[in-house]
Amino acid sequence: MNRTYKVVFVVLVIAAAGYAGWRIYESRRASKAGLLSENIVHNGNDWTADFTAMLPAPESEVFNAVRNIENSHSDQIRNIRMLSQTDTSKTVEFEMNGPGGQTITVQMVFQYDQAARRISYHTVDTPALNMKAEYQFDPQGSSTLISYHQVTTMTQQLPVPDGVIKEAIRSTFVSQLEDLKRTLNLASSEEPDESNDEP
Hints:
Elements (H helix, E strand, L loop, with lengths): L2 H31 L1 E9 L2 E10 L3 H9 L9 E9 L3 E9 L5 E11 L4 E7 L4 E12 L2 E12 L7 H22 L16
Antiparallel strand pairs: 1-2, 2-8, 3-4, 4-5, 5-6, 6-7, 7-8
């Protein structure tokens, strides 16, 4: 094998190892946040995402934490502004991190059905995308199972690979879980990071 092929081979091995390390980190982050399953499908202009997650907190507390979305401090959200509110709904404007480092401003209307343990929301006046989503909360003893379903229709084509959009959808949900854990004071229940402990 000549020198050029050896250099190319080493670069490819380093790139593959780096990608594998990043995926392991992301998987561990998702697991610590409580993510149980995920399925993200792209069909035409539609992106459909289904997630399940478990949080060690009572259902009513998790429901109220999601209900008070304006108190969120997710890494994916730059700013939140309440536009209107009633007993069963609210309209909120978000500035979010989008694919390729873009900022996306989105207005969403949230509907709350506490008796059915369900929160749904959809975008309004957002030219780049239309999103409909629903959280379903099921009590599991002292924990809560979250089932989340989202359909996003891109009204404009984004010049980024599918993998970037898929990772943005996944990272947004994982960030929501992490924020819920902070809001519910569950961060202290996480296992400590396995650092480079000296023997």
